[in-house]
Amino acid sequence: MKFLFSLLFLSLNFSSFFYYTIARGGERSSNYSGFMSSSYLGSARHLFEENHFQKLDKLAHGYMTNYDLEKAITAFGRRCANISRIYSIGKSVEGVPLWVMEISDKPGEEEVEPAFKFIGNVHGDEPVGRELLLLLANWLCDNYKKDSLATLIIDNVHLHILPSMNPDGFSLRRRGNANNIDLNRDFPDQFFPMNDNLDSRQPETKAVMSWLKRIRFTASASLHGGALVANYPWDGTQDKRKIYYACPDDDTFRFMASVYSRSHYNMSLSEEFQGGITNGASWYPIYGGMQDWNYIHAGCFELTLEISDNKWPAANELPTLWEFNKMSMLNLVASLVKTGIHGKIFSSDCGRPLHASVAIKGINSTIKASHAFADYHRMLAPGQRYEVIATMPGYKSKNTCVLLGEEAMTVDFILDPEIASNGNLLKSGCDCSLNNKSRFKLVEFLPGPHWEVSLILVSILVFLCFLFKRRVIFNHSKQRQLVGPKRSVVI
Ligand SMILES: *[C@@H]1O[C@H](CO)[C@@H](O)[C@H](O)[C@H]1NC(C)=O
Ligand SMILES: *[C@@H]1O[C@H](CO)[C@@H](O)[C@H](O)[C@H]1NC(C)=O
Ligand SMILES: *[C@@H]1O[C@H](CO)[C@@H](O)[C@H](O)[C@H]1NC(C)=O
Ligand SMILES: *[C@@H]1O[C@H](CO)[C@@H](O)[C@H](O)[C@H]1NC(C)=O
Ligand SMILES: *[C@@H]1O[C@H](CO)[C@@H](O)[C@H](O)[C@H]1NC(C)=O
Ligand SMILES: [Zn+2]
């Protein structure tokens, strides 16, 4: 009786469960999805997949094979050689290279610019993204110096495009990779230690994780199918409940997701999702997803975009899907330059760039300025007042209030080294106009009877450096302002 009852319960839930698995859902979350026994699920899915495969195989006509994709990427790299660089971030289980197209006027060079990444085909049976990403790359190349948005993106952003994260899953016409692991459940999770064993992680996941160590991405998006909505963090909740679970940057993410949905042909008209956007956990919680990991571990603001109700539509629908998504993709990337707060952080003791942290009061997340140029790029919802705080060990923190309008703002910081109570400069690792010998003499002076005199000397030097720096920063600000109308502040 009990058995019959639970069977009934299962079948009643099956349709709704299935609905959830359509887009981000999945096998690996069976531990957390609660009511469904994994063996039952396994066989049901297996039957589903076999019929599905034949259907998808027919549908594959008109889609690029993995071989076609590689050729298309190489051809793009040749045709648009002076605004692109082709590189691989690793290989799939079956040894297929994970090719990336970097698009920028200075590809491969580090610049004072934000970087954005698009990842397609995370799920093998969701191939629309990989097709659209090739169209996007080629459109940008064809319209550089002709279209203002294309030019803005190529000149001011480093756009990295990974058309397929899961080529093996694509050729197998299934969601998981060659080991049948759902890659969007394979990242370390903030609440559950499910993927903490590095050795058991999939090569595709490892490749993306080490990619984020090498390149500092400001924001990104992965492209999926099976629904029409822009999904933002958190994807999971601490207690596995299906509720709206806001991350610290909820306003920022709602803004970014809306940029996508409002620029889309009809995503924002969704009846199911207000405005065409959704918090991941309020739709259905997932664990081990790529999106939350990006935000937590790399300070990269990532969206999960569901770009077609049909996961694998007939190829003749691709041109329409491209038209529907084109402005969304362009505007999302351009929002990195057109909105938010940008700047650089220097030390006042000689204008050294500082790899400092930038936080916003009341928002528990920090981003870091780059090592090389100390530039930072902070996505933020426009139309609000923010207190921006720059911190660096060994330096006094500084903060400033800004009213962020619709346009981007430049806020540069000059941080002063901390002075201990006995008058010693802490961590003043730079020699400014002094060589290291004379600095040593100065430091020797400090604890002695003449330390007040020395302090005045130090102050004068610091002031001179400060004047010198202001000029440097003024020049940098002028450079940034070429991008567009921006207000500029030096703190
Ligand atoms: C790339 O080459 C084209 C044509 O030779 C030229 O118009 C364009 O300015 C070049 N772009 C860059 C970033 O050098
Ligand atoms: C998930 O379930 C499997 C067996 O059903 C178990 O071995 C594994 O430890 C579980 N994982 C977690 C994170 O609970
Ligand atoms: C968007 O347009 C497509 C194609 O006309 C249609 O199939 C889909 O149902 C529409 N979705 C919404 C949310 O209006
Ligand atoms: C800020 O977030 C971290 C985790 O990222 C958490 O450990 C900490 O408690 C949070 N602080 C506040 C004040 O919420
Ligand atoms: C001082 O400069 C010399 C060379 O001019 C260098 O070898 C030495 O390491 C420097 N010392 C410090 C403490 O920076
Ligand atoms: Zn998906």
What is the structure about, briefly put?
With 491 residues, the chain is an alpha/beta fold. It has 14 helices and 16 strands. The protein has helices at residues 2-22, 30-33, 38-59, 66-79, 128-143, 148-156, 167-171, 203-214, 250-263, 280-283, 290-298, 318-338, 436-445, 451-481; strands at 84-91, 97-103, 115-119, 158-162, 219-224, 227-232, 277-279, 301-308, 341-347, 357-360, 363-368, 375-378, 384-391, 398-404, 409-415, 487-490.
Report on this structure.
By secondary structure, the protein is α/β, with parallel strands linked by helices. The chain folds into two domains: 66-338, Zn peptidases (Aminopeptidase, 3-Layer(aba) Sandwich); 341-418 and 486-490, Sandwich (Immunoglobulin-like). Helices cover 39% and strands 19% of the residues. The chain contains 14 helices and 16 strands. The chain has helices at residues 2-22, 30-33, 38-59, 66-79, 128-143, 148-156, 167-171, 203-214, 250-263, 280-283, 290-298, 318-338, 436-445, 451-481; strands at 84-91, 97-103, 115-119, 158-162, 219-224, 227-232, 277-279, 301-308, 341-347, 357-360, 363-368, 375-378, 384-391, 398-404, 409-415, 487-490. An eight-stranded mixed sheet has the order 1-2-4-3-5-8-6-7, with helices on both faces. A hairpin with a 2-residue loop joins β10 (357-360) and β11 (363-368). α6 crosses α12 (318-338) and α9 (250-263) packs across α12 (318-338). The longest helix has 31 residues, at 451-481. It is globular, with a radius of gyration of 26 Å. It starts with a helix and ends with a strand. Residues 1-22, 25-47, 428-449 and 477-485 have low confidence and may be disordered. The protein binds 2-acetamido-2-deoxy-beta-D-glucopyranose (NAG) (5 copies) and zinc ion.
